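In response to the reviewer comment on reproducibility (Comment 2.3), we provide here a single inverse folding case reported in full, input and output, so that an independent group could reproduce the run without further information from us. The structure tokens appear first.
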């Protein structure tokens, strides 16, 4: 097994579509399908179910996702640590975004920075992975969800978005125009794996309990929409902009204003360069313009 096989696996696992995964990897679909088949044969496990309704992860595939992400991130960190001096000298920036960032944001950031003469590499990583990559010097900037451990890091001002409830369009609660957290009693909660953003995970459950919703069951999924479609009577939380990209899913606002996501563009403490300042401004503007993030109104 080579690291590229894990990259191929993660692309298909994220997209759940071989064609889109191939485009993301800048390759054609037939060799991608062969590489996935090679990986399945080497592991002796079936990672994907391929059927008339599309591609889904098997239980083995779901179990492989987080170890594969950690392995790829560790490899990238080692490679970046070795190339960091040449990267800085060549006016390059390596920037990480969470998986739910829209293509419009990525295009605006990459295009805007390249017009200033910077070479840009975009990396997909969770908040927990970005904290580690920043501290190791493997990335120059990241987009992190609060709260996260601040040691050695310097965040920008915060942007915020209120969370609403997302659910399949045929869910009984979808008939309501607005929801309260106690309305979700008895519903399975679909959440991201805690390892992806431990602080945000714990904060979300604390707020749910405070307002009277104690999930009897939590189903973890790397892609929230997958969990909603395979678990009966399931709900999740997300921002409206992300939910609107998923067919068959509806979003309803929540009465509890304290259930929200906050994000910042983050660099290593002590590193202040014109290129980093300019990139931070561009990234914040792109997040506001394309993904619905708004400045923190708190004083």
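Designed residues, in position order:
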């Amino acid at each position: 097994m080579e690291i590229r096989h894990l990259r191929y696996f993660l692309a298909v696992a994220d997209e759940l579509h071989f064609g889109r995964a191939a485009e993301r990897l800048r390759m054609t679909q037939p060799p991608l399908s062969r590489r996935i088949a090679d990986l399945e044969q080497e592991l002796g496990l079936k990672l994907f179910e391929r059927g008339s309704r599309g591609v889904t992860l098997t239980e083995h595939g779901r179990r492989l996702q987080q170890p594969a992400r950690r392995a790829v991130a560790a490899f990238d960190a080692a490679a970046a640590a070795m190339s960091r001096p040449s990267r800085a000298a060549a006016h390059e920036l390596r920037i990480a975004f969470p998986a739910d960032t829209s293509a419009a944001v990525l295009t605006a950031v990459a295009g805007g920075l390249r017009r200033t003469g910077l070479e840009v590499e975009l990396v997909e990583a969770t908040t927990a992975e970005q904290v580690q990559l920043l501290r190791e010097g493997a990335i120059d900037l990241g987009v992190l969800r609060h709260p996260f451990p601040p040691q050695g890091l310097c965040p920008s001002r915060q942007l915020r978005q209120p969370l609403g409830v997302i659910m399949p369009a045929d869910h009984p609660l979808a008939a309501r125009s607005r929801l309260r957290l106690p309305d979700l009693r008895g519903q399975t909660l679909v959440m991201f794996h805690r390892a992806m953003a431990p602080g945000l995970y714990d904060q979300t459950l604390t707020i749910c309990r405070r307002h009277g919703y104690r999930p009897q069951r939590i189903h973890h999924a790397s892609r929230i929409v997958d969990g909603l479609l395979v678990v009966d009577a399931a709900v999740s939380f997300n921002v409206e902009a992300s939910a609107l990209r998923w067919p068959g899913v509806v979003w309803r606002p929540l009465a509890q204003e304290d259930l929200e996501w906050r994000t910042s563009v983050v660099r290593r403490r002590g590193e202040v360069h014109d290129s980093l300042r300019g990139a931070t401004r561009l990234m914040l503007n792109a997040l506001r313009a394309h993904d619905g993030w708004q400045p923190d109104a708190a004083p």
